[in-house]
Protein backbone atom coordinates (compact mmCIF):
# COMPACT_ATOMS: atom_id res chain seq x y z
CA UNK A 1 0.00 0.00 0.00
CA UNK A 2 1.25 3.49 -0.87
CA UNK A 3 0.11 6.77 0.66
CA UNK A 4 1.09 10.11 -0.85
CA UNK A 5 0.31 13.54 0.57
CA UNK A 6 -0.73 16.21 -1.90
CA UNK A 7 -0.92 19.13 0.54
CA UNK A 8 -1.22 19.98 4.23
CA UNK A 9 -3.54 22.80 5.35
CA UNK A 10 -4.33 24.61 8.59
CA UNK A 11 -2.75 22.83 11.59
CA UNK A 12 -2.32 19.42 9.98
CA UNK A 13 -5.24 18.61 7.67
CA UNK A 14 -3.88 16.33 4.93
CA UNK A 15 -5.12 15.84 1.38
CA UNK A 16 -3.75 12.47 0.35
CA UNK A 17 -4.09 9.46 -1.91
CA UNK A 18 -3.96 5.73 -1.18
CA UNK A 19 -3.00 3.30 -3.94
CA UNK A 20 -2.14 -0.40 -4.25
CA UNK A 21 -4.52 -1.27 -1.43
CA UNK A 22 -4.82 -4.90 -0.42
CA UNK A 23 -6.18 -7.21 -3.09
CA UNK A 24 -7.45 -4.31 -5.26
CA UNK A 25 -4.27 -2.85 -6.68
CA UNK A 26 -5.97 -0.66 -9.29
CA UNK A 27 -8.25 1.28 -6.93
CA UNK A 28 -7.31 4.83 -5.88
CA UNK A 29 -8.62 6.27 -2.60
CA UNK A 30 -8.58 10.01 -1.90
CA UNK A 31 -8.32 11.18 1.70
CA UNK A 32 -9.70 12.46 4.01
CA UNK A 33 -12.33 9.82 3.40
CA UNK A 34 -15.06 7.94 5.17
CA UNK A 35 -15.84 4.26 4.77
CA UNK A 36 -19.27 2.82 3.99
CA UNK A 37 -20.70 1.75 7.35
CA UNK A 38 -22.27 -1.70 7.13
CA UNK A 39 -24.07 -4.08 9.47
CA UNK A 40 -23.53 -7.73 8.69
CA UNK A 41 -21.98 -6.74 5.37
CA UNK A 42 -24.91 -4.62 4.15
CA UNK A 43 -25.62 -0.91 4.28
CA UNK A 44 -28.25 -0.49 7.06
CA UNK A 45 -31.87 -0.16 5.86
CA UNK A 46 -30.78 -0.37 2.20
CA UNK A 47 -30.83 -3.09 -0.41
CA UNK A 48 -27.93 -3.28 -2.85
CA UNK A 49 -30.08 -1.80 -5.64
CA UNK A 50 -31.09 1.13 -3.45
CA UNK A 51 -27.48 1.68 -2.36
CA UNK A 52 -26.57 2.11 -6.02
CA UNK A 53 -28.94 5.10 -6.22
CA UNK A 54 -26.66 7.06 -3.86
CA UNK A 55 -23.92 9.19 -5.37
CA UNK A 56 -20.27 8.85 -4.41
CA UNK A 57 -20.66 5.81 -2.17
CA UNK A 58 -17.26 5.17 -0.54
CA UNK A 59 -15.06 2.52 -2.12
CA UNK A 60 -14.16 1.03 1.27
CA UNK A 61 -16.82 -1.03 3.06
CA UNK A 62 -16.39 -1.01 6.85
CA UNK A 63 -17.28 -4.39 8.38
CA UNK A 64 -16.88 -4.60 12.19
CA UNK A 65 -15.72 -8.08 13.25
CA UNK A 66 -18.17 -8.37 16.15
CA UNK A 67 -21.00 -8.70 13.61
CA UNK A 68 -19.48 -11.85 12.06
CA UNK A 69 -17.95 -13.79 14.94
CA UNK A 70 -21.03 -15.95 15.56
CA UNK A 71 -21.38 -16.73 11.83
CA UNK A 72 -17.75 -17.67 11.27
CA UNK A 73 -18.42 -21.23 10.13
CA UNK A 74 -20.89 -20.06 7.49
CA UNK A 75 -18.46 -17.47 6.11
CA UNK A 76 -15.62 -20.00 6.14
CA UNK A 77 -17.77 -22.43 4.18
CA UNK A 78 -18.34 -19.82 1.48
CA UNK A 79 -14.52 -19.44 1.09
CA UNK A 80 -14.55 -16.25 -1.03
CA UNK A 81 -14.75 -13.68 1.76
CA UNK A 82 -17.36 -11.17 2.88
CA UNK A 83 -17.04 -8.82 -0.09
CA UNK A 84 -18.46 -11.42 -2.47
CA UNK A 85 -20.72 -12.97 0.16
CA UNK A 86 -22.48 -9.63 0.65
CA UNK A 87 -22.44 -8.77 -3.10
CA UNK A 88 -19.99 -5.92 -2.47
CA UNK A 89 -17.25 -7.44 -4.61
CA UNK A 90 -16.39 -4.05 -6.07
CA UNK A 91 -15.53 -2.68 -2.60
CA UNK A 92 -12.40 -2.73 -0.53
CA UNK A 93 -13.17 -4.31 2.85
CA UNK A 94 -11.87 -2.95 6.17
CA UNK A 95 -12.52 -4.84 9.39
CA UNK A 96 -12.38 -3.26 12.85
CA UNK A 97 -12.62 -5.02 16.20
CA UNK A 98 -15.69 -3.10 17.34
CA UNK A 99 -18.74 -1.38 15.89
CA UNK A 100 -18.57 2.42 16.36
CA UNK A 101 -22.38 2.66 16.47
CA UNK A 102 -22.76 0.25 19.40
CA UNK A 103 -21.52 0.87 22.94
CA UNK A 104 -18.96 -1.76 23.93
CA UNK A 105 -19.37 -3.24 27.44
CA UNK A 106 -16.26 -2.78 29.55
CA UNK A 107 -14.19 -5.30 31.49
CA UNK A 108 -14.15 -8.26 29.09
CA UNK A 109 -10.64 -8.11 27.61
CA UNK A 110 -7.68 -9.93 29.15
CA UNK A 111 -4.21 -11.07 28.17
CA UNK A 112 -5.57 -14.15 26.38
CA UNK A 113 -8.00 -12.34 24.09
CA UNK A 114 -10.78 -9.81 23.60
CA UNK A 115 -14.55 -9.86 24.02
CA UNK A 116 -16.70 -9.20 20.95
CA UNK A 117 -20.39 -8.47 21.29
CA UNK A 118 -22.88 -9.55 18.65
CA UNK A 119 -26.58 -10.38 18.52
CA UNK A 120 -25.97 -13.59 20.41
CA UNK A 121 -24.06 -11.92 23.22
CA UNK A 122 -20.36 -12.06 24.08
CA UNK A 123 -17.86 -14.10 22.10
CA UNK A 124 -14.32 -14.49 23.43
CA UNK A 125 -11.75 -14.24 20.67
CA UNK A 126 -8.17 -15.36 21.23
CA UNK A 127 -5.25 -14.80 18.84
CA UNK A 128 -5.87 -17.92 16.77
CA UNK A 129 -9.58 -17.19 16.60
CA UNK A 130 -8.87 -13.61 15.49
CA UNK A 131 -6.69 -14.73 12.57
CA UNK A 132 -9.12 -17.48 11.64
CA UNK A 133 -11.99 -14.99 11.53
CA UNK A 134 -9.94 -12.60 9.38
CA UNK A 135 -9.17 -15.47 7.00
CA UNK A 136 -12.90 -16.13 6.68
CA UNK A 137 -13.82 -12.48 6.06
CA UNK A 138 -10.78 -11.96 3.79
CA UNK A 139 -10.38 -8.17 4.25
CA UNK A 140 -8.14 -5.89 2.21
CA UNK A 141 -7.43 -3.84 5.34
CA UNK A 142 -7.85 -4.82 8.97
CA UNK A 143 -7.22 -3.44 12.43
CA UNK A 144 -4.97 -5.61 14.57
CA UNK A 145 -6.43 -7.22 17.67
CA UNK A 146 -6.25 -4.75 20.56
CA UNK A 147 -7.38 -3.84 24.05
CA UNK A 148 -9.01 -0.43 23.64
CA UNK A 149 -11.19 -0.79 26.71
CA UNK A 150 -10.19 2.56 28.21
CA UNK A 151 -11.77 5.96 28.59
CA UNK A 152 -11.19 9.18 30.49
CA UNK A 153 -11.84 7.48 33.84
CA UNK A 154 -9.28 4.68 33.47
CA UNK A 155 -6.24 4.59 35.73
CA UNK A 156 -2.59 4.68 34.65
CA UNK A 157 -2.34 1.01 35.63
CA UNK A 158 -5.26 0.12 33.33
CA UNK A 159 -3.75 2.20 30.50
CA UNK A 160 -0.45 0.36 30.92
CA UNK A 161 -2.23 -2.99 30.76
CA UNK A 162 -4.04 -1.98 27.58
CA UNK A 163 -0.72 -1.12 25.92
CA UNK A 164 1.03 -4.30 27.10
CA UNK A 165 -1.80 -6.51 25.87
CA UNK A 166 -2.12 -4.68 22.55
CA UNK A 167 1.62 -4.96 21.83
CA UNK A 168 1.61 -8.66 22.73
CA UNK A 169 -1.38 -9.19 20.44
CA UNK A 170 0.44 -7.31 17.68
CA UNK A 171 3.59 -9.45 17.88
CA UNK A 172 1.62 -12.69 17.83
CA UNK A 173 -0.77 -11.61 15.06
CA UNK A 174 2.12 -10.47 12.86
CA UNK A 175 3.69 -13.91 13.12
CA UNK A 176 0.42 -15.69 12.43
CA UNK A 177 -0.40 -13.46 9.45
CA UNK A 178 3.00 -14.24 7.91
CA UNK A 179 2.05 -17.93 7.93
CA UNK A 180 -1.45 -17.37 6.55
CA UNK A 181 -1.75 -17.83 2.80
CA UNK A 182 -5.17 -16.17 2.71
CA UNK A 183 -3.97 -12.95 4.36
CA UNK A 184 -0.83 -12.36 2.32
CA UNK A 185 -2.48 -9.52 0.38
CA UNK A 186 -4.24 -8.02 3.39
CA UNK A 187 -2.91 -4.82 4.97
CA UNK A 188 -2.81 -4.48 8.77
CA UNK A 189 -3.28 -1.28 10.78
CA UNK A 190 -1.58 -1.21 14.17
CA UNK A 191 -3.77 -0.14 17.11
CA UNK A 192 -2.61 2.81 19.20
CA UNK A 193 -4.06 2.64 22.72
CA UNK A 194 -3.26 3.89 26.22
CA UNK A 195 -6.34 5.79 27.34
CA UNK A 196 -5.63 9.37 28.38
CA UNK A 197 -2.16 8.56 29.72
CA UNK A 198 0.24 10.44 27.44
CA UNK A 199 3.29 8.43 28.47
CA UNK A 200 1.55 5.12 27.70
CA UNK A 201 0.17 6.47 24.42
CA UNK A 202 3.68 7.45 23.34
CA UNK A 203 5.09 4.09 24.43
CA UNK A 204 2.45 2.24 22.43
CA UNK A 205 3.14 4.43 19.40
CA UNK A 206 6.92 3.98 19.49
CA UNK A 207 6.65 0.23 19.98
CA UNK A 208 4.08 -0.12 17.18
CA UNK A 209 6.32 1.89 14.86
CA UNK A 210 9.03 -0.69 15.43
CA UNK A 211 6.73 -3.38 13.97
CA UNK A 212 5.72 -3.88 10.35
CA UNK A 213 2.30 -2.20 10.04
CA UNK A 214 0.95 -0.21 7.10
CA UNK A 215 -1.24 2.26 8.98
CA UNK A 216 -2.47 3.24 12.42
CA UNK A 217 -5.85 3.05 14.16
CA UNK A 218 -6.22 5.38 17.16
CA UNK A 219 -8.67 4.06 19.73
CA UNK A 220 -9.34 3.76 23.45
CA UNK A 221 -10.83 7.21 24.08
CA UNK A 222 -14.45 6.12 24.68
CA UNK A 223 -16.78 3.11 24.64
CA UNK A 224 -18.24 3.78 21.17
CA UNK A 225 -22.00 3.87 20.58
CA UNK A 226 -24.40 6.85 20.24
CA UNK A 227 -22.84 8.52 23.30
CA UNK A 228 -19.62 8.99 21.32
CA UNK A 229 -21.41 11.69 19.33
CA UNK A 230 -20.62 13.97 22.27
CA UNK A 231 -17.02 12.77 22.52
CA UNK A 232 -14.88 15.65 23.78
CA UNK A 233 -12.25 15.59 21.05
CA UNK A 234 -10.82 18.88 22.30
CA UNK A 235 -10.11 17.18 25.63
CA UNK A 236 -8.02 14.55 23.83
CA UNK A 237 -6.48 16.87 21.22
CA UNK A 238 -3.15 17.29 23.02
CA UNK A 239 -2.72 13.52 23.35
CA UNK A 240 -3.71 12.88 19.73
CA UNK A 241 -1.34 15.61 18.52
CA UNK A 242 1.53 14.17 20.57
CA UNK A 243 0.90 10.71 19.12
CA UNK A 244 0.61 11.96 15.55
CA UNK A 245 3.92 13.82 15.83
CA UNK A 246 5.58 10.43 16.29
CA UNK A 247 3.92 8.86 13.25
CA UNK A 248 5.50 8.78 9.78
CA UNK A 249 3.84 11.02 7.21
CA UNK A 250 3.72 8.28 4.58
CA UNK A 251 1.28 6.04 6.47
CA UNK A 252 -2.46 6.72 6.94
CA UNK A 253 -4.21 7.27 10.28
CA UNK A 254 -7.69 6.00 11.07
CA UNK A 255 -10.00 6.76 13.97
CA UNK A 256 -13.50 5.47 14.74
CA UNK A 257 -16.30 7.41 16.41
CA UNK A 258 -19.76 8.81 15.72
CA UNK A 259 -18.37 11.83 13.88
CA UNK A 260 -20.50 15.00 13.99
CA UNK A 261 -19.69 17.49 11.19
CA UNK A 262 -17.79 19.86 13.50
CA UNK A 263 -15.85 17.18 15.41
CA UNK A 264 -14.91 15.59 12.12
CA UNK A 265 -13.15 18.74 10.88
CA UNK A 266 -11.27 19.03 14.17
CA UNK A 267 -10.05 15.44 13.78
CA UNK A 268 -8.97 16.13 10.19
CA UNK A 269 -7.11 19.23 11.37
CA UNK A 270 -5.28 17.03 13.89
CA UNK A 271 -4.09 14.82 11.02
CA UNK A 272 -6.59 11.91 10.88
CA UNK A 273 -7.18 10.58 7.33
CA UNK A 274 -9.82 7.82 7.49
CA UNK A 275 -13.19 7.76 9.28
CA UNK A 276 -16.31 5.61 9.52
CA UNK A 277 -19.82 6.74 8.53
CA UNK A 278 -21.81 5.52 11.53
CA UNK A 279 -23.10 9.05 12.21
CA UNK A 280 -25.73 8.96 9.42
CA UNK A 281 -26.93 5.62 10.78
CA UNK A 282 -27.30 7.00 14.31
CA UNK A 283 -29.12 10.08 12.99
CA UNK A 284 -31.49 7.93 10.92
CA UNK A 285 -32.35 5.83 13.96
CA UNK A 286 -33.62 8.96 15.71
CA UNK A 287 -35.84 9.94 12.78
CA UNK A 288 -33.57 12.88 11.98
CA UNK A 289 -32.29 14.21 8.66
CA UNK A 290 -28.96 15.93 8.05
CA UNK A 291 -29.53 19.51 6.91
CA UNK A 292 -26.26 21.33 7.67
CA UNK A 293 -24.76 23.46 4.93
CA UNK A 294 -21.25 22.80 3.64
CA UNK A 295 -21.43 25.31 0.78
CA UNK A 296 -18.36 27.27 1.85
CA UNK A 297 -18.19 29.04 -1.52
CA UNK A 298 -21.36 31.04 -0.72
CA UNK A 299 -20.96 34.73 0.04
CA UNK A 300 -23.01 35.30 3.22
CA UNK A 301 -23.68 38.93 2.29
CA UNK A 302 -25.20 37.93 -1.04
CA UNK A 303 -27.10 34.90 0.16
CA UNK A 304 -28.22 35.63 3.72
CA UNK A 305 -31.70 34.16 3.33
CA UNK A 306 -30.48 30.80 2.02
CA UNK A 307 -27.71 30.58 4.60
CA UNK A 308 -30.11 31.33 7.47
CA UNK A 309 -32.41 28.56 6.35
CA UNK A 310 -29.50 26.13 6.27
CA UNK A 311 -28.06 27.24 9.59
CA UNK A 312 -30.66 25.75 11.92
CA UNK A 313 -28.19 23.14 13.17
CA UNK A 314 -26.90 19.82 11.87
CA UNK A 315 -30.20 17.90 11.81
CA UNK A 316 -33.97 18.24 11.90
CA UNK A 317 -36.36 15.87 13.67
CA UNK A 318 -38.64 14.77 10.83
CA UNK A 319 -41.00 13.11 13.32
CA UNK A 320 -41.93 16.54 14.68
CA UNK A 321 -45.55 17.53 14.00
CA UNK A 322 -44.41 20.79 12.38
CA UNK A 323 -43.48 18.74 9.30
CA UNK A 324 -46.86 16.97 8.98
CA UNK A 325 -47.99 19.55 6.38
CA UNK A 326 -44.57 20.46 4.97
CA UNK A 327 -44.50 19.42 1.33
CA UNK A 328 -40.91 20.48 0.69
CA UNK A 329 -38.00 18.01 0.45
CA UNK A 330 -35.85 17.15 3.44
CA UNK A 331 -33.30 19.65 2.14
CA UNK A 332 -33.74 22.14 -0.68
CA UNK A 333 -31.42 21.58 -3.65
CA UNK A 334 -30.39 18.12 -2.39
CA UNK A 335 -29.90 15.72 -5.31
CA UNK A 336 -30.52 12.48 -3.41
CA UNK A 337 -33.30 10.09 -4.44
CA UNK A 338 -35.32 10.79 -1.28
CA UNK A 339 -35.32 14.57 -1.71
CA UNK A 340 -36.04 14.37 -5.43
CA UNK A 341 -39.11 12.17 -4.95
CA UNK A 342 -40.55 12.61 -1.44
CA UNK A 343 -41.51 15.33 1.02
CA UNK A 344 -41.04 15.96 4.72
CA UNK A 345 -44.80 15.44 5.20
CA UNK A 346 -44.68 11.98 3.63
CA UNK A 347 -41.63 10.88 5.62
CA UNK A 348 -43.19 12.35 8.78
CA UNK A 349 -46.24 10.17 8.13
CA UNK A 350 -44.05 7.09 7.57
CA UNK A 351 -42.15 7.69 10.80
CA UNK A 352 -45.23 8.23 12.90
CA UNK A 353 -46.87 5.08 11.55
CA UNK A 354 -43.65 3.03 12.01
CA UNK A 355 -43.30 2.21 8.31
CA UNK A 356 -39.95 0.66 7.33
CA UNK A 357 -39.74 2.89 4.25
CA UNK A 358 -39.08 5.86 6.54
CA UNK A 359 -35.67 4.51 7.59
CA UNK A 360 -34.82 3.66 3.99
CA UNK A 361 -35.54 7.19 2.75
CA UNK A 362 -33.74 8.85 5.67
CA UNK A 363 -30.74 6.54 5.24
CA UNK A 364 -30.54 7.42 1.53
CA UNK A 365 -30.56 11.13 2.31
CA UNK A 366 -28.22 11.00 5.31
CA UNK A 367 -25.65 8.82 3.56
CA UNK A 368 -25.80 11.03 0.47
CA UNK A 369 -25.35 14.21 2.48
CA UNK A 370 -22.47 12.81 4.55
CA UNK A 371 -20.64 11.38 1.53
CA UNK A 372 -20.98 14.70 -0.33
CA UNK A 373 -19.63 16.44 2.78
CA UNK A 374 -16.43 14.43 2.56
CA UNK A 375 -16.13 15.25 -1.14
CA UNK A 376 -16.49 18.94 -0.25
CA UNK A 377 -13.85 18.64 2.48
CA UNK A 378 -11.35 17.37 -0.07
CA UNK A 379 -12.28 20.18 -2.45
CA UNK A 380 -11.83 22.77 0.30
CA UNK A 381 -8.39 21.37 1.13
CA UNK A 382 -7.37 21.43 -2.54
CA UNK A 383 -8.52 25.06 -2.84
CA UNK A 384 -6.89 26.04 0.47
CA UNK A 385 -10.29 27.02 1.90
CA UNK A 386 -10.47 24.48 4.71
CA UNK A 387 -10.76 27.24 7.32
CA UNK A 388 -13.72 28.77 5.44
CA UNK A 389 -15.51 25.42 5.58
CA UNK A 390 -14.61 24.98 9.25
CA UNK A 391 -15.99 28.43 10.13
CA UNK A 392 -19.25 27.67 8.32
CA UNK A 393 -19.71 24.36 10.15
CA UNK A 394 -18.80 25.71 13.59
CA UNK A 395 -21.26 28.61 13.19
CA UNK A 396 -24.06 26.13 12.57
CA UNK A 397 -23.09 24.21 15.67
CA UNK A 398 -23.33 27.40 17.75
CA UNK A 399 -26.79 28.19 16.39
CA UNK A 400 -27.90 24.62 17.07
CA UNK A 401 -26.55 24.71 20.62
CA UNK A 402 -28.20 27.99 21.58
CA UNK A 403 -31.54 27.46 19.83
- Output the number of helix runs: 14
What is the CA-atom radius of gyration, in angstroms?
Answer: 21 Å
**Main β-sheet, in a few words?**
7 strands, parallel
Number of DSSP E strands: 16
Spatial strand sequence of the major β-sheet: 5-6-7-10-11-12-13
If you had to describe this structure to a student in words, what would you say it looks like?
The protein is of the alpha/beta class and 403 residues long. It has helices at residues 48-51, 72-78, 81-85, 127-137, 156-178, 198-209, 233-246, 261-270, 278-285, 304-309, 337-341, 344-352, 356-382, 386-402, and strands spanning 2-9, 13-19, 29-31, 33-34, 36-37, 60-62, 92-95, 113-118, 121-126, 141-143, 187-192, 215-218, 253-255, 274-275, 288-290, 315-317. The protein is built from 14 helices and 16 strands. It has a 7-stranded parallel sheet with strand order 5-6-7-10-11-12-13. Strands 1-2-3 form a 3-stranded antiparallel sheet. Strands 4-14 form a two-stranded parallel ribbon. The protein is globular, with a radius of gyration of 21 Å. Mean pLDDT is 92; it is low at 305-311.
Briefly summarize what is shown.
The protein has helices at 48-51, 72-78, 81-85, 127-137, 156-178, 198-209, 233-246, 261-270, 278-285, 304-309, 337-341, 344-352, 356-382, 386-402, and strands spanning 2-9, 13-19, 29-31, 33-34, 36-37, 60-62, 92-95, 113-118, 121-126, 141-143, 187-192, 215-218, 253-255, 274-275, 288-290, 315-317. By secondary structure, the protein is an alpha/beta fold.
Amino acid sequence: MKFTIQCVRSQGARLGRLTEVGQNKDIVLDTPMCMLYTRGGSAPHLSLDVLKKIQDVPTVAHMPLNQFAQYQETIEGYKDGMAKFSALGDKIVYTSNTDPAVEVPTGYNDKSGIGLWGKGGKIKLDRDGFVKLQEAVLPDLFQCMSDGDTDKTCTSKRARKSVDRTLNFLDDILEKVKKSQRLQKSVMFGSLVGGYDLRERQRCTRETLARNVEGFALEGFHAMGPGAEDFDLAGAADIISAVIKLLPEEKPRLMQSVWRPDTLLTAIDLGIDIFDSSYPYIVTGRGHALVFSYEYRHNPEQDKEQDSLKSAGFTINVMDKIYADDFSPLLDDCKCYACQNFTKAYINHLLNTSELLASTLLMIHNFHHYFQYFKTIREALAEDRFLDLKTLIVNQKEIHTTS
